[in-house]
Amino acid sequence: GILISYLLFASSSQLFFSYFKDLVGREVTVELKNDLAIRGTLHSVDQYLNIKLENTRVVDQDKYPHMLSVRNCFIRGSVVRYVQLPPEGVDVELLHDATRREARGG
């Protein structure tokens, strides 16, 4: 998969908000700043990059057994370290172009 750093989100949140909206319905893995990684279907994302996942499962179930019963979750954008996207969900050229436009200020 492709990892997108939350540090990139902070400066380009509108860019990533639009990008993630197009990934609704796809499976993603969200790694939190506390090292918990949750895989699930992206249900929604808002302008603050808060993420709602459905059909979730914890990547390291042995380390987080208390999370086994969690099937849906809301993740505050500010606690996200990375979002791993499915390779088929990534148009690298489109992402590069959008990032270059954003860096130039529009």
Overview of the molecule:
Strand 2 and strand 3 form a beta hairpin. The model is unreliable at 6-10 (pLDDT under 50). This protein has helices at residues 6-11, 13-21, 92-103; strands at 2-5, 27-32, 37-45, 51-58, 73-75, 80-85. Helices cover 25% and strands 34% of the residues. With 106 residues, it is α+β, with helices and mostly antiparallel strands.
- Number of DSSP-assigned strands: 6
Residue ranges: pLDDT <50 for 5 or more in a row? 6-10
Name the overall outline. elongated
Number of domains: 1
Number of helices: 3
Biggest pleated-sheet summary: 6 strands, antiparallel
Radius of gyration of CA atoms, rounded to a whole number: 14 Å
User: What distance lies between the first and last C-alpha atoms, to the nearest angstrom?
Assistant: 28 Å
Provide the spatial order of strands within the biggest beta sheet.
Answer: 1-6-2-3-4-5
Order of helices and strands: EHHEEEEEH
